[in-house]
Amino acid sequence: MSHSRTIADLEADIVALRAAAERAGTALACLFSTSDEFEAAVVRVRREQGAYRAQAGTRHPLRAAALVALMVLVFVLL
């Protein structure tokens, strides 16, 4: 049995094929126009993941200084 197709079916298939081809072409396009934008996005994502956290000692410098001063005082008094 042969299946006959109408002109409208063929035109609809051609339109769908063109739309699929356009979507396929844009799906491979880069989201960034420059490498600087790409690098900024990479850094932002890594920051959100916690890759660039501050060191433990640098968060509270006054606390560290007070602890050192207390240790010196205890050492001098002994």
Low-confidence spans: none
Oligomer: single chain
Give the helix tally: 3
Largest sheet: none
Taken from the alpha-carbon principal axes, the silhouette is rod-shaped
N→C terminal distance: 106 Å
- The rounded Rg comes to 33 Å
The percentage helix is 55-70%
What is the residue-averaged pLDDT? 82
Describe this structure in words.
Helices cover 67% and strands 0% of the residues. It is built from three helices and no strands. The longest helix is centred in the N-terminal third of the chain and has 21 residues, at 7-27.
Can you tag this structure with a few keywords?
mainly alpha; 3 helices
Question: Helices and strands in order, then pairings?
Answer:
Blueprint: H1 7-27, H2 35-48, H3 61-77
How would you sum up this structure in a few lines?
This protein is mainly α and 78 residues long. It contains three helices and no strands. The N and C termini lie far apart (106 Å).
